[in-house]
Amino acid sequence: MERAHSLLLSEAACSQLAEHQRPQFVFEWLTHLKKLLPVTDRVDIKQNQRRLIEQLSGVLIGSPGPPTRWLLAHCVALLYRLGDPIAASLFVDRCHDIIRSKDDSPSGLPTRLAAMACLGSLFEQLGRMLVGSFKDSLTILLKAMKSAEVSATAGLKPPEEVKCRGILKAEDHTPASQVLKQSALPSSSPDCHRWKQSRVPPVVEPGFTEIRQALGRAFSLSCRLLRAHPARLLRYEWKLGSRLLTVGQFADDRDDTSYLVKALNREGYGEYTCDITNEAGAGRCTFLVTGKAYAPEFYYDTYSALWQNKPRVYGFKLQWTQMEPNAVDRILAYRLGIRQKSQSRWWEQEIAMEGSIQKGELLTYNLTELVKPESYLVRLTPITRYGEGDTTDTTPRTAPVNPHLSKRDFEYAAPRHQIHPQQDCSTTHCSKQGFYMYIETSRPRLEGDKARLLSPTFNTNSKTSSSSSVTYCFSFYYHMYGKHIGSLHVLLRQKGQTVTDTSVWTLVGNQGDRWRQAKVNIHPAAAFQIVMEGVRGAGIEGDIAIDDVTIEEGECKDPPPNNLRSLAPPSSPHIWQLSVTLSLALIGRQR
User: Fold this and answer.
1) What class, spelled out in words, does domain 416-590 have in CATH?
2) Which class would CATH give 202-290?
3) pTM of the prediction?
4) Could you give the 3-state DSSP secondary structure of residue 420?
């Protein structure tokens, strides 16, 4: 919440300044607010939104100068877009009242111009959400332009530009020509003519795209025009670096232009640009064409990845797959780097690759002579004839694999401020101390992406139990809150002659802003692991957290309602009980 508190203007500090110092203080606060709003949690923005609007309204009626009013307009629109947009219409009405006022004094004019700027930014940021106010805003702005006092002022041009730029957003839903026709203003009036002749530079997509290609391949680059005014006599110009490739003019029925690379050579790598221009300016699409290989993705589900042949010396089986291996030239080798975390020196060698690597192919390399208890950082970099590609790091873990012999807390933990839950649901039951695990659903994660947590391997051979199947109670707390929540699954992985994964518990969708407990009986017939799988939903507001994961031999006592799903009938009563508390290790994300 510290960041949220810093959103507000320090009125106490501002009041202590001299009168001539306060505008600079407000300007610096607006500059800070413009940078801080996009990186602040939306819950914090909504909690402070009412007070922020009051402070911004105070700046609005304080006769702000041109730099301050443009920052003010941007912050107001950004606040309603990131916070609660429902009340934006009230701010629009406030701007209408200011513009309608007859106060043309030197102190009143800056406030009217600031209100115009705020209207333009609100329409630009919120667009269709304010379509109900579109007609009134346009009518009021056009009437304000008739005023001789406003027209003769040098400050007129910026509000006019903002008005037109913002209105184009609302035009997607309600055409401006229709609104002008419905209003009492004749279409041939000078005001309408001036509005129609406003110029908008081309807006294009994509702004920037990275493209990875192998030598000798053909591919096409395309730049699309979204809007421009005037929309005729548009020209395009393609370049590679500073070298001109082609120029031309848009046909009336086209809104995009393409450039074809027939066979990529070494000189064809670099930055391609397409500039689309009209009388008002230019829009640019940029394409970075490179032959860099994508990063390798480490495989964390290796069975018996650790071994030890000497005291204090161990080995580690490193396994990975290559992301999109066919996108670029064949990978010739990997550069392996390894260093002790307590030191800065890297030891490096190359792992040669023979033949082409297939997508999903599991690659293996054994690391030996690793010294306990040192922790190591391992780095892999793919190499093609283009050069080095993207790098991936990992840290081998030296945890024991049999929890029947010892209890082990794994090293992975997530700070509690990185996810929606405001508390850790530790053994003290939802305290503000400790840690929990969660899946991060922000970019570049996509809908359907999976993150898995694996427990250590458990042996089921009880010394005193005569039954071939032992019952265990698996319990945990979960937090699933957000409109984009995907699903959480618990799988039982049994390791007999073959490895099988069986779903024993699943939950989908938003479960409210609270920690809940789940318990489930499992009946493994062989050595087993517990797999917890989180699946990303449709958007970024879908983090799923877990905490207090335990497994005990015996039936679950007082299970929560509607949370149990067993694989087999209950086994015979157990004779001895084993209780192990797990802090699960993050094994990796699977797509």
Assistant:
1) mainly beta
2) mainly beta
3) 0.41
4) coil
